Amino acid sequence: MITCAVKVPETGEQFICSAIYAFNTAAERSHLWREIRETQSAHAHLNLPWVMLGDFNVTLSSSEHSRSLDYRTDQIGLRAFQEVLTDCSLVDFSYGEALFTLWNKRDEDPIGNKLDRALVNGDWLRHFPNSHAYFDAGGVLDHARCLIRLTGIHDYVSKPFRFFNFLAENEEFLPTIQETQSSTARLFHSRTALSSFHKKLKMLNPVLRTLNRTHYGDLPSRTKQAFEELCECQNRVLSDPTAENFSQAAEAYDKWNKLARIEEKFYRQKSCIRWLQAGDQNTSFFHRSVQARATQNTIRRLVTEQGEVLTAPSDFKREAVAHFQRFLQAHEQTQEISIESLQDL
Fold it and tell me: Model pTM?
């Protein structure tokens, strides 16, 4: 493992880069895992973006082996790799093109693996939100080469409406729903019932947006402000333990605790992680998951039916519209069938 600091002359941006070439066995790789943990501890106070890329010689999951059912996966090495990512708050960097990064070049026993990858920390996702990695063939080598772009084309698009579960716990939720639905005609069994129901749901869109923005807009900032107010009230209690200060501290705690629980539900739903049942209010973990998921779900290039590669979001929109127009407006050629031909069947 070789680690160095990188500075981009044009922008002045800085980040830490580590090049990896791991041993073949799990026992020998343990030295690398220890070195990664030590590097993370040594540079954590700098809050700099950190990227690690290279050949880790182990997969993160069984699905990263093209024939995982035929070959036993190194479960011990796999779990050790996963533990390093968790301990150092690293995520698998968004990548495009190739699913696997290594092929054995054996015609009689072809195998593909993903042993090469790029890992980044949360500071990287915050400083370079539009960055991404590509893996493509490297020519004479049996490993794919990794290319990382720090910037990308980013057009603002309006966000689609998404219902967050914590809205249903608000005391104004049910009265708002009832008021909106009572202003429209009742539903009956008819051919237009489904269309009418769809219109009712569409009417709730701006109403629920307003409800969410009024009570939970900029939720992280509200939670942080509530925590600071709680600390101020507690300091007043420590200086002057009166009944009034105790009451204010209790109210501040209830306010912060409510917002903190809502914030946890918000990040849990956005990150699509369901397995954390106890709820450690681990919002930093969920926030990293949200950032990583958003990076992975970003469409960075699109290949048309004619083989043209599109990279601009405006071209994505145009091609999507054209694709469905061709698909939905296509006219199938029909051949007239005579009665005689039907009788011959």
Answer: 0.50
